[in-house]
Amino acid sequence: MSLAALLVLADGRFPAGGHAHSGGAEAACKAGRIHDAATLADFCRGRLHTSGLVAAGLAAAAALGLDPVELDAAADARTPSPALRTAARRLGRQLLRAARATWPADELDALAVAFPRGAHQPVVLGVTARAAGLGPSDAAHVAAYESVSGPATATVRLLGLDPFEASAVLARLAPELDAVSARATEAARRARDEGTRALPAASSPLLDISAQVHAAWPVRLFAS
């Protein structure tokens, strides 16, 4: 494992397009579900244990070398919201562009050919981690971290929340993030023998509904 590669991939400044997405925080702020550091922590915790867990499992499985076509279909099945499927593929396409420029690899080129309109972002993340010499646990940690860091960063912009408070929320979630990553990695290892049905399929209906509502807004700060 290359620690430097892990830091590059997890860096919010890596040009993968995540800065344009709030992870559901914009809709939650407008609805009043996020209005301070405590409610941000509740939102992030819920997202980590649902969509974050799912993304971490898919990323870990892709890093292990499972078929990305099968994993993309599994991601589709675990993403009932059309708006979130669209966002995931846009993010996947942007991440793949950045990954191919950073860690050129045949498997990344093959992924681009198989999914010209973009594969789901966690699948691309896992293949990218593999190309960068990282393991399934690394990929799971990056996916889990992204599931909470995006909303935390977005809330600073949306509410003017103190960035020190937002960072403290992420720091306090660290033990849970480690646990989610470990659970996702173990599921990915089972998926090598049991197929994609072994991967997490936690649901977050409110996030799905909010994403559809958010997509219909005529004016919004974030793409999703």
Topology of this protein?
Blueprint: H1 3-10, H2 25-30, H3 37-63, H4 68-77, H5 82-102, H6 106-114, H7 121-131, H8 136-159, H9 163-172, H10 174-194, H11 205-215
What's the story with the biggest beta sheet? none
Tally of extended strands? 0
User: Shape, please?
Assistant: globular
Strand pairing plus helix content: what structural class? Answer: mainly alpha
Instruction: Tell me the radius of gyration.
Output: 16 Å
Report on the structure:
- Helices cover 71% and strands 0% of the residues.
- The chain is built from eleven helices and no strands.
- The chain has helices at residues 3-10, 25-30, 37-63, 68-77, 82-102, 106-114, 121-131, 136-159, 163-172, 174-194, 205-215.
- Helix 3 packs parallel to helix 10 and helix 8 runs antiparallel to helix 9 (163-172).
Task: Describe what is shown at a glance.
With 224 residues, this protein is mainly alpha-helical. The protein contains 11 helices and no strands.
List descriptors.
224 residues; mainly alpha; 11 helices; 71% helix; globular
